[in-house]
Fold this protein.
Amino acid sequence: MRVVAESPGRGGSTSLLGTAAPPEVPEGEVRWSRFLAATEAEGPGVRAALWLQGCAVHCPGCFNPQLWAPRGGALTPTAETARAWVDQARSAGAAGVTLLGGEPFDQAGASAVVAEAFRDGGLTVMTFSGYPLERLTAWSAERADVARLLAATDLLCDGPYLQEMPDPHRPWIGSRNQGIRALTDAHADEVRAIAVHGRLDTLEIRIARDGTVGVNGWATDAALAALLDDLGARADRPGDMRDQQWKAEAVR
Ligand code: SF4
């Protein structure tokens, strides 16, 4: 594996998060939480996004702690599910897929099968990992599943999320210690530009017909709370909804 271009992380090298080798699990089934056929908030351009279920890294302040449990989500046949996802992504106009989580390397074999299916379908692959690249590289010498997922990845964001080191100047990642690396030429120019100029992140808010609000991308808790407050009553804060309902009754 070679790094074609990078915006390396800075600091955080004394953190022990992500330094224990990921579990080795069979690749025949993939455990996942959510699949989105097209989004513009989880990497370059329009991409599909797959949230794997299960993460052993456990970064304090993680945006997706509900994805830590290794037994949650859905468990489906990897190859068959991957083919269906590729079809959905291509129909939605996606040019790539992003694997995130959860932790893709905690089921590296299954993630590699998914990544290879997207590559075969002509899409690029971006992979997020809480494990630092130097650890992944060292483990890949002994672990074929880790080596295979690295080989099927065009763009890697690596390293644990360290909440005390927020990074508002680069897209996709959450903290300054995390690296953005092009492992092929596919997104190398974009990574070079980020290394020189930085770039603000993108947050995507989707409001379904039933009023459910979905958020893709990354923001600080404070920024997200301010944004969601502007949208009105929030189902995750029932007290606000009761107040709103009381006001509505008072004016009747
Ligand atoms: S590696 Fe990612 S999913 Fe896992 S705990 Fe850290 S931020 Fe959360």
